[in-house]
Design brief:
Layout lengths: L4 H17 L6 H11 L9 H23 L1 H16 L6 H23 L1 H5 L4 H28 L13 H11 L9 H12 L3 H25 L8 H29 L5 H19 L8
């Protein structure tokens, strides 16, 4: 079967969108749904709608691989210390064990909600829901960041400045906020960073913990999604698109993550919130004008 190069180019576009948006607070899923609808990635070929859903899941794993590569030393240290703590009955490796437990605690709320409401959550993956998520998430980002910065300016010692210093309660608070990310357009990054602010983490630490929570969240979500995928629709075009998309998402995410953390050390996140609100309003206006169709 000959390859559909136009479709593969569309897949690359979606992969670039994923890499650019997965770890910044603008919603990668929301952008992929919107861009995919605009360029016809979800239609025009047999099984395109089904494949698009699976493609978005797989390239997100490419972005998650970027977390593992960028933070390899820190993650490897944590894994080694986690098992050292277990095998030495708590005599060594306390820091890594504590970090691992916090990641587990932070992942539990999303796991429970994701498994319980899986079908209903997937039913929300539509452009109309994305627009709502963009606007509501942007407003929340501005409000919570203002509260956070006011507290931080009055009492800097209240911030946790190292991801290994989190308490289980802080991890749970971040995990509860991660539930918001199940609404497409809300953004997992934005939701967990807001949770980090509420929990008393500095912005860079909130972002780092957000990255680490993404690993179990996205791997778990991917396993559930792939288990429901109809692999009989796969063809040579889809296979190539999947491989190329994974690689592109990984490379772009690796570059963006490093730049994003550097940005957070100097600048507020308000610019992302403003972008989300404007994008949501523009899309809503285009829909009302009949230029863009937002499926309900």
């Amino acid at each position: 079967m000959s390859l559909d190069f136009i479709y593969i180019i569309k897949a690359i576009v979606i992969a670039v969108v994923e890499g650019l948006t997965e770890f910044v607070p603008v919603s990668s899923t929301g952008h992929m749904i919107l861009v995919g609808s605009l360029i016809g990635f979800r239609s025009g070929a047999v099984g395109a709608e089904e494949f698009a859903k699976m493609f978005e899941v797989v390239i997100q794993l490419g972005a998650i691989l970027a977390v593992v590569v960028l933070y390899w030393n820190k993650l490897w240290k944590a894994v080694v210390e986690f098992f050292t703590y277990i095998f030495t009955l708590g005599k060594k490796g306390h820091s890594g064990f504590k970090f691992g437990i916090n990641v587990i605690i932070g992942s539990i709320p999303a796991l429970i909600v994701g498994v319980t409401l899986y079908d209903k959550i997937k039913g929300l993956f539509k452009p109309s829901a994305v627009v709502v998520g963009f606007i509501v998430g942007g407003i929340l980002l501005i409000i919570i960041e203002n509260i956070y910065r006011n507290k931080a300016s009055k009492r800097r010692s209240y911030q946790t400045m190292d991801v290994f210093d989190l308490t289980p309660i802080q991890a749970l608070k971040v995990g509860l906020f991660q539930i918001l990310a199940m609404w497409p357009g809300m953004s997992r990054s934005a939701s967990t960073i807001m949770g980090g602010w509420i929990a008393g983490l500095s912005t860079p630490v909130a972002a780092e913990f957000s990255f680490f929570l993404a690993i179990p969240a996205m791997v778990g979500s991917s396993i559930m999604d792939l288990s429901n995928f109809d692999f009989s629709i796969m063809n040579s075009t889809y296979v190539v698109a999947l491989i190329v998309g994974f690689i592109v998402a990984f490379i772009v995410a690796l570059i963006v993550m490093d730049m994003f953390v550097s940005y957070l050390k100097k600048k507020p996140m308000r610019i992302f919130a403003i972008y989300r609100i404007i994008a949501g309003i523009v899309l809503l206006a285009l829909s009302v004008a009949g230029i863009v169709t937002l499926t309900i």
